[in-house]
Amino acid sequence: MSEWTTAGLWLAVIASGIYHGINPGMGWPLAVSAGLLDRRAGELFRALGLLATGHFVAMIGILLPFGAMLTLIAWERQIRIAAGLIVVAAGIYLLINRRHPRVLVRIPPAQLALWSFAAATVHGAGLMLVPIYLGLCQTGERDVGHQAASTLAAGNLITAIAVSMVHTAAMIASGGVIAIAVYRWLGPKFISQSWFNLDIVWAVSLILVGGIGIASIGFAR
């Protein structure tokens, strides 16, 4: 059962990455724009690389603090509940406040890595991974006396990096497929004619993920 749960959590990491990649708000239209402006496919892939870098840094920046807090095993339950509530609160906020953050407009298009980091941060992309990540960080043994804090911290660090890498790879792969398709075959008109807004879906999904994360604590006990 525990193996199935772990596999399910990793599938959730990949699925959320694909979901983020499909969302235009995570930047794939900017990669298309870079390729079209320079008339070189290489610029499109360079832009995707910068977007991936920024997204990865945003993910690891959110996950590492929670991983560090998990070294306080005695407070694990409270930490996971608090994390779930934060994710739910972020979803409710985005559901109420539908305006796009002005900070993204002020970042020059040439600074794609910085833009990707800011976009992932302000949209709560990293927060969506927190309940999943905390589930993966659970240890099989609850006996604190037999676990060195340094070993646990190192394990959480590796998990945080792995989750961020797998998620970012899924994100940039799904977004990259759309960007390449638009660049090579569909053309820029596809963006203007088929633009879809996932803001409401994004906010609701944050609420659901946070709620599921809190509910899973009860099932795990």
UniProtKB/TrEMBL annotation:
The chain crosses the membrane at residues 49-72, 79-96, 112-136, 157-180, 200-220. Keywords: Membrane, Transmembrane, Transmembrane helix. This is Arginine/ornithine antiporter ArcD. It comes from Mesorhizobium album.
